Amino acid sequence: MRHFGSRRWPVTLRHGPIGLRPLRPRDFREWNESRARNMAWTAPWDATRPPEASGEGLSFQDMVRRGRAEARMGRALPWAITWTEAGRRPVFAGQMTISGIVYGAARWGMAGYWVDQALAGRRIAPTALALAGDHMFGPLRLHRLEVAIRPENHNSLRVVEKLGFRCEGLRESYMHVDGAWRDHLMFALHAEEVGPEGLIGRLG
Prior knowledge:
Radius of gyration: 16 Å
Number of helices: 5
Largest sheet: 9 strands, mixed
Structural class: alpha+beta
CATH topology of the domain at 2-143: Aminopeptidase
Shape: globular
CATH superfamily of the domain at 2-143: Gcn5-related N-acetyltransferase (GNAT)
Number of strands: 9
Strand content: 25-35%
Order of helices and strands: EEEHHHEEEHEHEE
Helix content: 10-25%
CATH class of the domain at 2-143: Alpha Beta
């Protein structure tokens, strides 16, 4: 069963055992343990601060506070991804963030996500992205969803392929990732490309 949230933050979404809920300060322990356990799994794809960026990186608590503020202003959707085994409580499974949301004439946002390697193979990433996209194109009435992926990130490429994202080409030195400016492939979907079944319906 799929639950669509309202336009107003906070928004919680769910499809089967996979959920999206607001990232919260008390997630720190699970988040920190997951990031430490998955360092080799996520580091090649993690955004990093370029040398010309001033100041220190955000702490987890600052990241959550900033995400909440951005969400209340309608500029971002900072979710924790959860996974629920039958008869158990939901566990922290990763993050899904829609950032850079713009309304007006553009009406678009960009998705970024990661999933704990221990839970890989359960269709968590494509389901989470589908839930986020259906919320964007539904209650938020946005027009365009983008995902930027390094060409070497085959797992993430399979996610957008499953959901029918279009590849719009290579953007050179697009984002600072894993310590350097990296090329990214840009994928996108427009609202009119998604039928009434939504992105969830594309998962079969």
